[in-house]
Amino acid sequence: MKDNKFVLPILIVLLAIFLPLSIYGIYSNKNSILFKDNPNHEHKFNNKLYYYDDNDNLIGYYECTSDKCNDASTTIDDENNIYYDKGKDNKISILSNNNVFIQDNDVIKLYNLNSKVSLLELKMIKNYSAPIDDNLLIVKNIDNKYGIMDLDTVNFKINPEYDYLAINNSFDGEKLVASKLIAKKNNVYYLISSDNKKLTAEFNNSIYDFNDNIIVCIDNGKYMIYKYDGTKILDYQDITKINLLKNIVIYQNRLGNIYIYDNLFNSIIKSFIPISSDMNYTYEIVDNTIEIKNNNVLYDTYSIK
Fold this sequence. Notes:
Blueprint: H1 2-37, E1 44-45, E2 48-52, E3 58-63, E4 69-71, E5 99-104, E6 107-112, E7 117-126, E8 136-141, E9 146-150, E10 155-162, E11 164-166, E12 171-172, E13 175-176, E14 180-185, E15 188-193, E16 206-210, E17 214-219, E18 222-227, E19 232-236, E20 239-244, E21 248-253, E22 258-262, E23 268-272, E24 281-286, E25 289-294, E26 297-303
Antiparallel strand pairs: 1-2, 2-3, 4-5, 5-6, 6-7, 7-8, 8-9, 9-10, 11-14, 12-13, 14-15, 16-17, 17-18, 18-19, 20-21, 21-22, 22-23, 24-25, 25-26
C-alpha cells in the first residue's frame, strides 16, 4: 500500500509531461504532412486546389475529380455582344463562410471549404469580369435556367426560372448597374428589376439595349425602338449603329447620317449629314465624349452629360 502511494503522483507527473508532447506531436505531424503535400503553397498541387488566407494560413482544399479543375471563370454569353470586359479578373474570390466557385470538368460547384461539401452545381456564372451592384452574380443552373445570386449571403435573390438573363453596358464608377436586367421567358423578352419585378411590356425580339425610357430590339440586323409600354417609336431597317447613353440616343443609318436624340427619343439635339460624296462620317464614344469623325479625322465632339 505504501508503494501505491508513490505510483499515483508519478503517473500524474508523467501524464503532465508526455500528454502535451503527444498532442504537439500529432499537431506537428499533421502540419508537416500538409506542408510536405504542398510545400510552396501553390494554388493547384497534386490534383488539389488549396486556399489560403491573407496570412498564408490554410483555409481548406478541394480534391479535383478531373484534369479540368480550377477556380470557376465567369462567362459572357449575351445574345447581343455589345458588352465589354470592364474588369480584369474573371474569377471570384473566396465568399462568406469560406465558400468558393470551382469548375471541375464541365460542372461549376459552389463548394464549402469548411465542411468539404458541394452546396450547388451550376453550368455558368456571369458578372462581366466586373463587380455588379449589390454584389450580385448571374448564374445558370444544370437545367439551363438563369437566376441571380447574392454573393454576400450566398443565397438566390432571384431563383433560376428564366431562359436568359443579361445586364446592359452601364457602369456607375467601376460597378455594373444591375437595377434592371434583360430577361427571357416563354420565348418573349422584357426587363425585370433586381428583385424580380416585371418593368416593361413583352417583346418578341431580342433586347439589344435600353435606358430609363426606351428599349431597342433587334431582329436579323433590323433595329426597332420602343417605349417601355410596348409602343413602337422607330422601325428602320437602315440603322447600322445605335447607342443608348446617359441622357441621349445616338444612331447612324446606311446613308451615313448621324443623329443625336434626347433620351426619350422625342427631339433631335444634333445631326451630321454628309453634303458631298467625299464625306464619310463615323462616331466613337470615348469616355464621356462622342467623337464625330470625317474620313477618320476628328470633325466634332459632343459631351455626354
